[in-house]
Amino acid sequence: MAVVEVEDVMFAYSDRPVVEDVSLEVEQGDFLGLVGPNGSGKTTLLELMIGLRRPDSGSVRLFGQPAHASETGKRVGFVPQDVAETEGEMPVTVREVVRMGRYPRRLFGRFTDEDRAAVDAALRRVEIEDLAERRVGRLSGGQRQRVFIARALAAEADLLALDEPTVGVDAESREAFYDLLGELNDEGMTIVLIEHDIGVVTSRASEIACLNRELYFHGDPETFVETDALSAAYGDGQSIVHHEH
Ligand SMILES: Nc1ncnc2c1ncn2[C@@H]1O[C@H](COP(=O)(O)OP(=O)(O)OP(=O)(O)O)[C@@H](O)[C@H]1O
């Protein structure tokens, strides 16, 4: 089943196009690594994919529905860029942030036992149950990323969208974080990840999409490494390898 279907999408800020002619699909269970130079439109494309932005032309479907429809948004766990800084000063505890994952399903009244159980299970799954009562602002970058993964798990998200989640995280925590993402993917979670480290992403992802405004490549990591899509996207753009899907 296609989780995300991007078809002929264009998007411009004012008059400046940053995503052009992009078509790609993310299948259930995929681990898509989205790569490309700085400013190549990766964040914008990710936001289009999960319905945070609407394309100027073309279409994006998420779980078979128009991506901007509110129902589909609940099924996406989004870990934005620089979550470390933006959430850092907030005087909320880890448990409170993870509990926010339950808000969309709580129409009236209190949290149920089921909500509490889901929060506890999510904290355990990402191995931060011992941090539950700590303030998010006091955590390391790596721990904080886990809090946002736990929030997505508590929300029972079917798709995790992460924008350079390990910027500023030390090498050891980074490895552990990617191990966790790999495990979640093995358990069936669909993942779309923006990552600037090509080595990390080609060793972890099942699919690579290489963007520089247009899509230069979409296919498996082995083929990506073998082709010159990378230098084309990062270089003069002369030898474009179009997506293979
Ligand atoms: N809200 C905005 N308004 C105007 N221009 C924007 C906005 N957000 C991004 N841009 C510009 O659009 C282009 C694509 O940005 P985007 O963040 O999608 O790329 P990116 O590949 O994620 O970049 P990076 O790797 O630096 O995060 C960049 O030139 C950026 O400066």
Automatic annotation (TrEMBL):
InterPro entries: AAA+_ATPase, ABC_transporter-like_ATP-bd, ABC_transporter-like_CS, Metal_Ion_Import_ABC, P-loop_NTPase. GO terms for molecular function: ABC-type vitamin B12 transporter activity; ATP binding; ATP hydrolysis activity. SUPFAM superfamilies: P-loop containing nucleoside triphosphate hydrolases. Pfam families: ABC_tran. It catalyses: an R-cob(III)alamin(out) + ATP + H2O = an R-cob(III)alamin(in) + ADP + phosphate + H(+). It is an enzyme of class 7 (translocase). Residues 4-237 form the ABC transporter domain. Keywords: ATP-binding, Hydrolase, Nucleotide-binding, Transport. Transmembrane segments: none annotated. Its EC number is 7.6.2.8. The complex is composed of two ATP-binding proteins (BtuD), two transmembrane proteins (BtuC) and a solute-binding protein (BtuF). Required for corrinoid utilization. Probably part of the ABC transporter complex BtuCDF involved in cobalamin (vitamin B12) import. Probably responsible for energy coupling to the transport system. Belongs to the ABC transporter superfamily. This is Cobalamin import ATP-binding protein BtuD. The lineage of its organism: Archaea, Methanobacteriati, Methanobacteriota, Stenosarchaea group, Halobacteria.
